[in-house]
Structure formats: C-alpha cells, structure tokens
Amino acid sequence: MITISLCMIVKNEEDVIANCLESVKDIVDEIIIVDTGSQDKTKEIVGKYTSKLYDFKWIDDFSAARNFAFSKATKDYILWLDADDVVLPEDAEKFKILKETLDPSVNSVTAKYNIGFDEYGNVTATYRRNRLVKRSNNFQWFGFVHEYLAVGGNIINSEIAITHRKLKQTPKRNLEIYQNKLKEERVEFTPRDILYYGNELYDHRMFDEALKYYNQFLDSKQGWFEDNIRVCEKICDYYQSIDKVEYGRKYAFRSFEYDTPRAEACCKIGFSFLHEKKYKQATFWYEQATKLEKPKDSWGFFNDACWTWLPHLQLCVCYDRLGDHKLAYDHNEIAAKFRPDDSRILYNRNYFKSIGIG
C-alpha cells in the first residue's frame, strides 16, 4: 500500500481549514501545511492535525509556495488541496481503495474537481486536475497565479472527486498580482498568463479589457484546445448578456474549430435564435445538444445542465411556440427527470394540464 503526504498552502483560512483536514485525516499519512502569513486562528487549528507547519514569506508567487510545500513531503505520493476543498465520505472511501491498490508505476492520478452546484446540491460544473503525484519524480509547479503542476509519464484518471466549498472571496488579490507583474520590465506573459489575466478581468467585470486579452489568447494559436473552447463560451456569454446575440453566436461557432461540437455551445447558439424568435433554428441546435455524448475523461470544463436538462427545458419552449404542444410536454418531462422540483418545470406542467395535455 502506498503512503501519502498532504501538502497545502494556506493564509487566513480559519473558517474552512478544519473541514478540509477533517475530511482527509484518515486518508493521508502526513500533513504538511505551509502558511503564507495568516493573522487569524489558522495556525492554531492546523496544530490540532499536524506538527509539520511551516512559514513561507509571501512573494506574489503561488508556485513558489507550493513547491516549498512539496519539498517537505516524505511519503510515496503527494496529495494537494486548497483550504476550501473537501473530500466527501463517498470519495474518501474511493481514495482508501485507491491507496491500497495503486500500482507504484503510476506517476499521477487525476480526480474530478466539482466547482459548481445547483440549489439542490447537484454538481453542475466540473473538470479534472492532477491530484496525487509520485514524490520521487519531483514534479514542479509553474506560474505565479493560477499555477499548474507539470506532470508526465504514467497518468491515470480516477473517479474520485474533490469538492470545492468556497466561503469567502479574495476580490482583487490575483488581479493585482497580474497588474503588478505587467509593470515589471523582465516579465513576459505566456499564453496561459494571458488567458488567466483575461479571466480575472472578466470576473471583475472589466469586459473590454478582458475581451482584448481573450482574443489575444485565441489569436496566438498556442492555447490548449479546451481553454480555447472555454474562452469562446465566455465571450459568447458576454455578448448575449448585452443582447448582441449575433456577436456571441460567432464565438460559439468558433469553438467548433477546436474540437467536435459541445452541448454548451449548441445551447448558446440555440439561445441566440430563441432570443430572435427563430424557433426552428433554436430547436435544431437544442436538439443537437441532446444528441451529443460528453467526451470521456476530458479535462475540459463542463456545464452539466447543457448535457442533461437545459436543452429539454428550452425545447419545451420552442415546440410550444411552434404549436407542437405534445412534443413540448415530452421534453418538459425529460427535464423533470433531472430537476423534479424545478419551479419552471412545475409551471409548465400546470400549463399543459390547462390545455388538456399530460
């Protein structure tokens, strides 16, 4: 059976750190915490779980802090988490099985990262990350913000999920780090830096500047295809939010250049035509979304709504507007299988009942 070191970097995480450590304490063999300047009770709480607590002077570089944490590990494999992550009980059991059965030739194990949830607690957004890596390979982190762990060799995808439970925001921290880096003469942004700076600008509603960097990223032709798709989706969302659906539609179609069509893009195209009251065109694209199969073991970002209930709910609207009430009813019922308590679906049922359907 392999042994595992948990390596984390933290700062002022008193509200979440106990939940994180409590969820993994029976999985890992060693807990290493690197504190980058906490002024609350984080260290006091961490002390209840481990004596391996180290201070690291913050230098606006997440990779430097993570690499320092990794350097303190002594076990076979390293697991990394953020303070607002947890391993739910069902995933903890999967982790214990993996720990007992993992082939030592494996260099890295990926896990799903659940980052979005609906009001019923269902996962709505997820992607994959390398989570468990062989210590002897000395894999390193790169990037001062939105850092990534560079791994290679034998990588396997697990069904384990890490659940993100963010309770607080750090509004301008990452944005300011990027802005400060831009002022340094010797710093040149990589395509990845351009992408994530664009994301920070977008999240802070600095849309004109965000679109400038997003298009610079796409035009570089150096981006990972999943990132290209995600950027196209975000630009589309922006234009749809300001009622410029034709502009948004162009970027949804552009996402097809990077891989086979995704349900997210088909739904956005469908929405653009629905917005224009072009119900036949909208129906076509929502139908396409229902026929697609989600890429297996993809590392991309997926909005599960687009792959499950959303296109059916929208098809209910489209077919009703086209006069096919029975087909509209059928799609509403398909959507109900995923969200039985959704107020919109319940409203639709009452509507269909009022016209003698269902």
How would you describe this protein?
The model has no long low-confidence stretch (mean pLDDT 96). Strands 1, 2, 3, 4, 5, 6, 7, 10 and 11 form a nine-stranded mixed β-sheet that branches. A two-stranded antiparallel ribbon has the order 8-9. Helix 11 (279-291) packs antiparallel against helix 13 (310-321). The chain has a domain at 4-164: Spore Coat Polysaccharide Biosynthesis Protein SpsA, Chain A. The chain is an alpha/beta fold and 358 residues long. It has helices spanning 17-24, 42-46, 62-71, 89-101, 173-183, 191-203, 207-220, 225-241, 245-254, 263-275, 279-291, 304-307, 310-321, 325-338, 343-354, and strands spanning 4-10, 30-35, 53-55, 77-80, 85-86, 108-117, 123-134, 140-142, 148-150, 155-164, 302-303. Helix content is 47%, strand content 17%.
Provide a concise account of the structure shown.
The protein is of the alpha/beta class and 358 residues long.
Order of helices and strands: EHEHEHEEHEEEEEHHHHHHHEHHHH
> What sort of overall outline do the alpha carbons produce when their principal axes are compared?
globular
Indicate the mean pLDDT: 96
Individual helix count:
15
Residue share in β-strands: 15-25%
CATH class of one domain: Alpha Beta
Helix content: 40-55%
First CA to last CA: what distance? 56 Å
Q: Which architecture name of one domain does CATH use?
A: Alpha-Beta Complex
CATH superfamily of one domain: Spore Coat Polysaccharide Biosynthesis Protein SpsA, Chain A
Sheet having the most strands = 9 strands, mixed
Q: Which stretches of 5+ consecutive residues score pLDDT under 50?
A: none
